[in-house]
Amino acid sequence: MASILQAVPEWVHALPLGVKIAAVVVGLPVLVILLNVLSQVVLPKDPSLPPVVFHYIPWFGSAAYYGMDPYKFMFECRDKYGDVFTFILLGRRMTVALGPKGNNLSLGGKSTHVSAEDAYTHLTTPVFGKGVVYDCPNDMLMQQKKFIKHGLTTEALQSYAELMVKEARAFFANNLKVTKASGPVKIDALHTMADLVVLSASRTLQGKEVRDSMSTHFAKLLEDLDKGFTPLNFMFPNLPLPSYRRRDRAQKEMSDFYLSIMEKRRTGEHDHEHDMISALQGSVYRNGVPLTDRDIAHMMIAILMAGQHTSSATSSWFLLHLAHNPELADKLYAEQVEHFGNPDGTFRDMTFEETKTLPLMDACIRETLRLHAPIHSIYRLVKQDIAVPPSLSAPSESQTYVIPKGHFIVAAPGVSQMDPKIWDNSTEWNPARWFEDGGVAKTANEQYQAGEKVDYGFGVVSKGTESPYQPFGAGRHRCVGEQFAYLQLTVLVAEIIRTYKLKLVADEFPKTNYQTMIVLPLDPYITIERR
Ligand code: HEM
C-alpha cells in the first residue's frame, strides 16, 4: 500500500481532499466501465458460449433496456446476435432462446435440466405460502395441477357461467351506474376489469365465503399480497421494506382465512357449491399423502394470483381494442344478438357450451392474447448444461453453443407471436387473421392445441412448444386455467358489449407498461355509453 502511495505524483498529493474524493468517486466508475467495455471488445470470446449483449455497466448489464421494453430489446438483440444470446440482468446471466425451437429448449426441457422452482420460488413462496407450486419438487406441482384440473370439470364450469353473468350485472348496477340519462362515462378499463375479474373468480372458483368477504378485509389482503409480487421482489426477495412486511402479514392472514372456511364447512356452519376448495379437499398425492388444509389454502392463493392479473390484463386490452375499433365492436354485438338476442331486445344468458360457439369472440380473444401475452419472459434456472441445436446457434450452423448450468434460460413466446417473419402485419390487432383457412394463425393454433401429446402428470396435454403461438405457455408448466380464462373473458366482455358502446378517450391507442410483472396498458381510459 505504502509503495502504491509513493508512486502517486507529488502534485496529486497537493490536491485538496475534496478534489481527491471527487476524482475517486467519478474516476473509479469510469475506470470500471472502461475495463468492462474493453473486456467485451478485446478479450477473446469462448466460442461455445452464446454471445453476450454489449453493456457498459458490469452487474447492472442490460437491466434498463430490457426492463423498459423487453420486446424491443429482444427483437434488436435477435437481429444482432441470432436466436440465442445472453444478457446481464443485475448480476444474473440470462440466456434468451427465441422462436419455437428456443421455447422448446426451456419450456420443453427436462425438469432435471431446467427448473421453474429454482427460478421463481423466492418470488412466489412468500406470496402463495409454503409447500406448494414452486416450494415443492416438480413432481408434486404436476400432481397439484392435476388436482386443480379435477376442480375445473365441465359441470363446475357450467355452473360458473351463470354466476359470472350475475356478478357482471350487479357490478354494472352498483359500480358503473351508467344510464341513458348519464350519457358516456369515463372509466379506467384496467381497474374496472380487475374488479370484475376478481369478483367473478371469487364467486366461482374461490367460493361463496371469499366472495362475501371481497368488500371487506379480503380485498385489502389481496392488495398487500399483490404489492409483494413485483419485479423488485423478483430481483430482491427480502428487503427491509414495509411492502415486504405487509406481504408477509397478508399471506398469513389470507391463509388462515381459507383454513377457517374449511373448518366451518367441516362443522356444517357453511354449505358450499362446486368450488375449488371443495374439489381440492380429499386430494391425495400418489404416495398416499393427502393435501393438508394449509396446502389447500396456499394453492387457493396461487390460483387466485395466477388468474387475476393475466385475465384482467387480457380483458382490458380486449376492451381497449374494441373501443379503438367501433366497427369490430358492432360485429361482436351482432354476434351476441344473433346467438342470444330475445325479440324484445334483451339477451338470454349463455351457457358454458355456448361460449365455445362464438367465432368472432374467440378470434378476438386469440388475437388479444397474441399481441398482449401477459407474461413477456418465462424464466428457468439451468441445472445442467444445455446443448443448443445447430439450427439455433448463430452465426453458423457448424458452431454450436452450450447454455451453462447456473444461467437462467429465458423463453419469450410473445416474440414469436409478434414476429414479422411469421405473421403479416404482426403488430396489428386483426382478429380476421384467425378465420383464414390455411393461414398462419390457424396452423399455429392447431400446432398449439393438437400437436404432440404428453402427460407430465396432470393429464394428457398438447406439448405445444413448437408452435409460434403459446399464450398459455407450453410443456410441463403449461397453464391449467385456460378453459376457465376463456369462459371468464367471454362472459365478461359479452356482458359489457351487450350493455355499452365503447370509445377510446385518447386519440392514440394506449402504450404498454412493462414495469409490472404482467404486461399492462398505460392510461387505459375509455368511455362507456348505455346502448
Ligand atoms: C401457467 C398464462 C389464467 C393457473 C401459466 C403459464 C402461462 C399462463 C404463460 C406458464 C408459466 C410458465 O411456464 O412458467 C395464463 C393466461 C391466463 C391464465 C394468459 C389468462 C388469460 C389462469 C387461470 C388459472 C391459471 C385463470 C387458474 C384457474 C395456472 C397454473 C399454471 C399456469 C396453475 C401452472 C404453473 C406451472 O406449472 O408452473 N399460465 N394463465 N392461469 N397457470 Fe395460467
From TrEMBL:
Q: Where are the transmembrane segments?
A: 21-43
The positions annotated for binding heme are 479
Q: Name one GO molecular function term.
A: heme binding
Q: Which UniProt keywords apply?
A: Heme, Iron, Membrane, Metal-binding, Monooxygenase, Oxidoreductase, Transmembrane, Transmembrane helix
Gene Ontology cellular component terms for the protein in this record: membrane
Q: Which cofactor does it need?
A: heme
Localisation? Membrane
Q: Which PROSITE patterns match?
A: CYTOCHROME_P450
> What family is reported?
Belongs to the cytochrome P450 family.
Name of this chain's protein: Lanosterol 14-alpha demethylase
Q: Whose protein is this, by species?
A: Vanrija pseudolonga
Task: Report which gene this protein is encoded by.
Answer: ERG11
